[in-house]
Amino acid sequence: xxxxxxxxxxxxxxxxxxxxxxxxxxxxxxxxxxxxxxxxxxxxxxxxxxxxxxxxxxxxxxxxxxxxxxxxxxxxxxxxxxxxxxxxxxxxxxxxxxxxxxxxxxxxxxxxxx
Amino acid sequence: xxxxxxxxxxxxxxxxxxxxxxxxxxxxxxxxxxxxxxxxxxxxxxxxxxxxxxxxxxxxxxxxxxxxxxxxxxxxxxxxxxxxxxxxxxxxxxxxxxxxxxxxxxxxxxxxxxxxxxxxxxxxxxxxxxxxxxxxxxxxxxxxxxxxxxxxxxxxxxxxxxxxxxxxxxxxxxxxxxxxxxxxxxxxxxxxxxxxxxxxxxxxxxxxxxxxxxxxxxxxxxxxxxxxxxxxxxxxxxxxxxxxxxxxxxxxxxxxxxxxxxxxxxxxxxxxxxxxxxxxxxxxxxxxxxxxxxxxxxxxxxxxxxxxxxxxxxxxxxxxxxxxxxxxxxxxxxxxxxxxxxxxxxxxxxxxxxxxxxxxxxxxxxxxxxxxxxxxxxxxxxxxxxxxxxxxxxxxxxxxxxxxxxxxxxxxxxxxxxxxxxxxxxxxxxxxxxxxxxxxxxxxxxxxxxxxxxxxxxxxxxxxxxxxxxxxxxxxxxxxxxxxxxxxxxxxxxxxxxxxxxxxxxxxxxxxxxxxxxxxxxxxxxxxxxxxxxxxxxxxxxxxxxxxxxxxxxxxxxxxxxxxxxxxxxxxxxxxxxxxxxxxxxxxxxxxxxxxxxxxxxxxxxxxxxxxxxxxxxxxxxxxxxxxxxxxxxxxxxxxxxxxxxxxxxxxxxxxxxxxxxxxxxxx
Lengths: 114, 668
Hints:
The complex is a heterodimer. Chain A is an alpha+beta fold. Chain A contains three helices and six strands; from the N terminus they run βαββαβαββ. In chain A, a hairpin with a 5-residue loop joins β5 and β6.
């Protein structure tokens, strides 16, 4: 297996608080303008999703997701030390689920109130 | 291509900084009212000042459309004592808050909040906020008024806390600011205040600022300035790797530090709280029964429910009983006000001896928050309305959990596994408190009945003022300070800017770019400051440790901090924040030194003065900068009702609010 290996600093933690779906995102950069911490930077390639530059400064406020008008283009991912403890038990069956599990239950599609 | 490393991996240099670099470039602005900080308080202040006829400029280091502690949304509106359904008067609510704070609270801020919080909510409703259940989703619920559609929280008898659908609060305020022609400068962080003739203690005549995308320098001349930069943070704990994220990352007390350097008076800076600091869980995404989740049943691993009790130890069997004041209790102050809990101000809660019961094995971990046991409307109010609209939970919790399949109708959310003692507070997601990992208390700027600081031309709103409060007090005090500052700005004569001070500030701001690059960046510097604060201004303090802390912070300022580097405008902004954090840290150390007594309300434990709350020290310790040193004075706890002010809240409000009886819609 031939693979070019580079000297790079360790990845900042959290690694990837904001994930883009390149098929849906049109690179409009509205999320870049919404982010209070400049976690996101415009991509030099027009039409491409922003670059997640300061992943370690994400406040997980979700304003980038709220601002986006292309459903599914952008999603928030909590870092493992935060997502792993989030677990729930179905009262009727005793089944246990967690955030990030391999085979999650179907999504609950009920929107927030209001 | 999502991260910068990916560019290296495909043999391309990392992309160039995407914004034009304008180091040294100076822009001069002039306005009537300058608002420093575009969060909830700042936006309300700006709108109010503009509606009073002033030209207004807002500086916000993030993005005013979304930033601030309340930027991601709001779900409950507290102290709306003048709403038509309220069973509590502003006087009664203020008195409970003041008494519960042992008197260490800001009377004007508290009373103004109680008088104008409802009006501020009506302002928000006029610009598009959904503040009522107009569709009847909650029809028939005991927390809904059938006539008005208003929904109550926490205290269904007194109805002064309202549930609102505020996930889009900031975009609505932003749109209104734009509509009114308010000049908004995003990504622009306050550097310092400018004083008349450059003399600290003199009238504030403007400010300097730096753009954290371009590095451009701003000099703003203003008739009046409002500090609305929120509660300082990142003082005792800082970690970007191990963290929960409750308090706003950007709140570093920049406005407070600038006001301190300009000579403004501060009080209560010695107060702080033990906290899990940066190391808790996702706020409200772990099982809990606190604040937004208040009233939620908690069960153990076997489904055994933990009983609820009122303040007198009477067991409350139903959820409905948890939302009523205890017998003889006037009002439940809303959760989230940061008013200390005591007998007068107490919500009902889980068994007080829960820690012992867990230790004895009567309740098995993990515990779960079991919304399924609540009536549908109460469950929907907690998870669908409050979690679904609150700042920091709509996307981080509601969207994230529901997408992953969580269904509050069927599922029980697990609480963290912690030592039994950590379950004494129902705020389980906060994690385990570590005494030296502290969080800023409720210190801040001293204000009078105009919400003016001790400096002419300088006003304050929201968390920058000392004392307790929440989203609604930021809104109400912003609304009030905005009109007062507008009136003061109109009255002023021409005041030239102090050019030598402008030049000195400019040199200070750019120093991290030019000086020899020591290998210290802002993150290591921030964590270093926090280590000093943990060690020397932690749970226990004494003359020796506090003086040593002051010396160490002073040394840090001249050595490592003076050589900290910034590679781009963003890092420059973060290095400058560290300067603010050091200044706020010094204020906390100095205030702790000046109070030669321990205090339970202020959470101050002086090893050398162990007596708790001796009557002689029942007073506000007021500090201000004097030359290179600090001047400590004092102010009676009821200073706001003593000369030169009037002896009653209502009379002071009438004289100072700037409202005539005709336009005072809030009059009782």
